[in-house]
Write a structure and sequence with these properties.
The chain has 644 residues and is of the alpha+beta class. 40% of the residues lie in helices and 13% in strands. It is built from 27 helices and 17 strands. Strands 2-1-6-3-4-5 form a 6-stranded mixed β-sheet, sandwiched between helices. It has a 6-stranded mixed β-sheet with strand order 8-7-12-9-10-11. The longest helix has 22 residues. The radius of gyration is 23 Å and the shape is globular. The mean pLDDT is 96.
C-alpha cells in the first residue's frame, strides 16, 4: 500500500476525556478487512472494550466515523456512523445519519474519532485540520440540540458550522437518547446519545479544508456519474425525492403494515385512512428542498405549518419513522402532528422509537386498566391525545415522574411495573420496535435478527413494505425468488442474508441505503460499490471481497453480543403479540404468523450463516473462515461458541 491513502485519510483521533490526552493513530492496516466506519468501529469495540464494561462506564468507548466514500462525489455518500456498547440492549449499538459533520471530519483529516473516559466537566470536541480541542460546555449543558447549535455557532463565530449533539435526553441518560445532526437528523435507536451524556460530552464540531483525493479520478468520476444518472432516470425517483419514505403510506396501509395503537390493528381506521396520508401535508407545507452532499435524490424538505394546531412551526420535514412509531402507534388523528412530534423529539434528543414504543405501551396498559392515573402523574393516557404525548416526551427527556420509567424503554418499563404488562411491550432484544412483523416475512426476519436490536436498517428487504418489485428482475439481480410475495416463508432467509451484506457495505462506505438496491433495483448494487472503492482508493476490491468484509463484520457483531449479553436463539423471536395474534383490519385481516414455518425459516437463516441452530452462536468454522480465530478462542472460553 502506498504511503498516501486515497478516499480514506488513514487517520483516527483518539481522545481520552478523563486524562485529556489526544492522539492521532494510523488506521490504514484495518482497511482491507474492515473498510472504515461501522466495520472499523466493530473491530475497535471488540478488541478494546473488556467484557465487564457497561454502557455508562467510563471504560466504554464511542466511535464517530465517516465512511471511505464520504467527501467524494459518490452518489449518496452522506452517512456518518456512531457505534458503541449501548444502553438499550447492553450489546452492539450502532446508528447512522445524514451528516455534514462526516464530510467536515474527513476534510479535517480524520476517518474516525474514538472517545474514551469521562470528562470531569461538560465538554464538546472542536476538530479542525489545524487543531483539536476539548472545550468547556458547562454553559451548554441543559440546552436543547437546537439551542446548542446556535450557541456553538455564536461562540466559534461561524454561522455555517455543523455539529452533532445531545439534548436533555442524552444528558439525563434516557436509554433511547439520540445524537442529532444540527437540528433534525438523528442517529436513532441504541441510545448513543445517552453514552455521550455519560461521558459529559455535549457535542462534536468539525470543520476542515484538506482535500479528499481519489486514486483514479477519471474512472471514479465516470462511474459516479453513471450511477447518478441511473438513479435520476429510474422509476420512482421523482416520487421518493418529493415524499421520501412517507410516500410508502398507501402500500403499508394496503398490506397492513401500520402499527396502529401499539400494533393492536394493522391499518388506520376507515375514517382516517385518507386524512392521515402524509403526502398532502408534504405538498401543502413544503417551502424548500433540503439535501446532503452527494445525494442525487434529495429527500429532505423544509416545512412551515401555516394553519391548524401547530401553526408557525418551521422545521425540516419528517420521514416515516415518527409517523409510524409515534403518530400511528399512539392512534393520532391530526396529520400535521407528525411534523411537530418529529421536531420536538429531535430538539430534546430522544429517539422516536423509544418515545413511541414506551408511550404506546403505557397507553395500551391504561386502556386495559393495568395503569391508572395514580401511576401516570394524574394524566389520562388516552389514544391520540397529542398534548399528553408531547408532555410525556418532555417527561421522558427530563426523567420526571412517570417519564423516568418510560425513559427505560417499554421492555424495562414493563419489568418495573409488572402486572402482566410485558405482553404489550413491543420490542426485540430490549429495543423498542416500530416495525409491523406480521404479514411481511423477509422484513420481519431482518428486523428480528438484527444484532443491534429490532430494526429494519441492518438486514431487511425494503421491497416488501416499500415498493412493488418485478420478481424476475429481482431474481436476475439478487439470485432469489419470492421477493414479491410477503407471505411466503421460502427464500426469505437468503434475502435477509443478502441485505445484511448490503447494509453493512453501505454503512462502511457512507452510502445511504436509499441510493442502493435496498430502495430500488435500478440503483447502486454491490459490484458498483466495488468499482467505486477500487477507483477511489487504488486498492483492488471485488464484489466478493465486499461480501466477505460484511460477513466478517456481522460475525464480529454477534461475538460482541455474545460477550456483553445473553442473546441467543430465544431473542431472535417475534414479539409475543406477533406470535399469538392474527392481523386485524384491512386486506390482511385474519392472517397469522405460522411459528412452525417461522422457526424453519430461522433454521435456514442460521444454516446460511454457519451458526448453531440451537443457540444462534457463530461456529469456530465460520469465524476462522473470516480470520477471527482469536474471537473463536474467546467465545469458546466463555462457553458461547456454536456447535458445528
Amino acid at each position: 500500500m502506498s504511503k498516501e491513502n486515497y478516499g480514506f485519510t488513514g487517520k483516527t483521533l483518539r481522545i481520552n476525556l478523563t486524562s485529556k490526552e489526544i492522539k492521532v493513530e494510523d488506521n490504514t492496516k484495518y482497511f482491507k478487512e474492515w473498510l472504515t466506519s461501522s466495520g472499523y468501529a466493530a473491530k475497535i469495540v471488540y478488541d478494546e472494550i473488556k467484557e465487564w464494561v457497561t454502557p455508562f462506564d467510563p471504560a466504554n468507548k464511542i466511535i464517530f466515523s465517516a465512511g471511505v466514500l464520504i467527501g467524494t462525489v459518490a452518489p449518496g455518500a452522506c452517512k456518518m456512523n456512531i457505534s458503541t456498547i449501548g444502553p438499550m440492549t447492553g450489546g452492539w449499538a450502532t446508528g447512522s445519519s445524514d451528516s455534514y459533520v462526516a464530510m467536515e471530519l474527513k476534510h479535517a483529516g480524520y476517518d474516525a474519532v474514538i472517545v474514551e473516559g469521562r470528562s470531569h466537566f461538560p465538554c464538546y470536541l472542536w476538530i479542525t485540520d489545524e487543531k483539536v480541542e476539548i472545550k468547556d460546555a458547562t454553559a451548554l449543558w441543559g440546552k436543547t440540540t437546537w439551542d446548542t447549535l446556535d450557541a456553538i455557532r455564536e461562540e466559534l463565530n461561524d454561522n455555517k458550522l455543523h455539529i452533532v449533539s445531545i439534548g436533555p435526553a442524552g444528558e439525563n441518560l434516557v436509554r433511547g437518547a439520540s445524537v442529532i445532526q444540527d437540528r433534525n437528523r438523528g442517529f436513532g435507536r441504541c441510545g448513543t446519545g445517552a453514552v455521550m451524556g455519560s461521558k459529559n460530552l455535549k457535542a462534536l464540531v468539525c470543520k476542515g479544508k484538506s482535500p479528499i483525493k481519489v486514486a483514479n479520478g477519471d474512472k471514479f468520476m465516470k462511474k459516479a456519474m453513471e450511477l447518478r444518472n441511473r438513479i435520476l432516470n429510474a422509476s420512482n425517483t421523482d416520487k421518493f425525492s418529493k415524499y421520501s419514505t412517507l410516500g410508502i403510506f398507501q402500500k403499508k396501509q394496503d398490506m397492513g403494515a401500520i402499527p396502529y395503537k401499539n400494533c393492536q390493528e394493522s391499518v388506520f381506521p376507515e375514517d382516517t385512512d385518507v386524512s392521515m396520508d402524509p403526502a398532502p401535508i408534504v405538498d401543502k407545507y413544503t417551502v424548500a428542498k433540503q439535501n446532503f452532499p452527494g445525494c442525487p435524490i434529495g429527500c429532505g424538505r423544509h416545512m412551515e405549518i401555516t394553519d391548524g394546531p401547530y401553526k408557525g412551526l418551521v422545521t425540516e420535514g419528517n420521514h416515516w419513522e415518527p409517523f409510524g412509531t409515534i403518530v400511528a402507534r399512539c392512534g393520532c388523528k391530526e396529520p400535521t402532528f407528525m411534523v411537530k412530534v418529529s421536531a420536538y423529539c429531535n430538539e430534546l434528543g430522544v429517539d422516536f422509537n423509544l418515545a413511541g414504543g414506551a408511550i404506546a405501551w403505557a397507553m395500551e396498559c391504561y386502556q386495559r386498566g393495568i395503569l391508572t392515573k395514580e401511576d401516570t402523574d394524574g394524566m389520562a393516557l388516552e389514544w391520540g391525545d397529542e398534548p399528553v404525548i408531547l408532555e410525556m416526551i418532555r417527561k421522558i427527556s427530563y426523567r420526571e415522574g412517570f417519564g423516568n420509567i418510560l425513559a427505560e424503554g417499554c421492555k424495562r418499563a414493563s419489568d418495573i411495573i409488572g402486572r402482566n404488562s410485558s405482553y404489550y411491550a413491543i420490542h426485540i432484544k430490549g429495543q423498542d420496535l416500530y416495525e409491523c412483523l406480521r404479514g411481511s416475512n423477509a422484513w420481519a426476519l431482518g428486523a428480528i435478527v438484527s444484532t443491534r436490536g429490532g430494526g429494519h436498517t441492518t438486514g431487511t428487504c425494503g421491497f416488501e413494505q416499500m415498493l412493488s418489485v418485478d420478481n424476475e428482475k429481482a431474481y436476475k439481480i439478487l439470485g432469489v425468488r419470492n421477493v414479491d410475495d410477503p407471505l411466503t416463508y421460502e427464500g426469505k432467509a437468503e434475502i435477509t442474508y443478502l441485505y445484511e451484506i448490503l447494509h453493512r457495505i453501505n454503512n462502511c462506505t457512507g452510502i445511504c441505503h436509499q441510493n442502493t438496491i435496498y430502495n430500488n433495483l435500478d440503483y447502486i448494487d454491490i459490484p458498483d460499490i466495488a468499482e467505486l472503492l477500487t477507483y477511489a482508493t487504488g486498492i483492488e476490491l471485488s464484489a466478493q471481497d465486499l461480501r466477505d468484509i460484511a460477513m466478517r463484520q456481522l460475525n464480529l457483531e454477534k461475538a460482541i453480543n455474545a460477550r456483553f449479553t445473553d442473546f441467543s436463539r430465544k431473542d431472535d423471536m417475534p414479539t409475543l403479540r406477533d406470535q399469538t395474534e392474527p392481523m386485524r383490519k384491512g386486506k390482511m385481516d385474519g392472517w397469522k404468523l405460522d411459528m412452525d414455518k417461522y422457526n424453519k425459516m430461522l433454521d435456514e437463516y442460521y444454516t446460511i450463516h454457519d451458526w448453531d441452530k440451537e443457540t444462534a452462536y457463530p461456529t469456530r468454522r465460520i469465524l476462522e473462515k473470516y480470520g477471527l480465530d482469536y474471537v473463536a478462542d474467546e467465545l469458546e472460553r466463555i462457553g458461547k461458541i456454536g456447535k458445528e
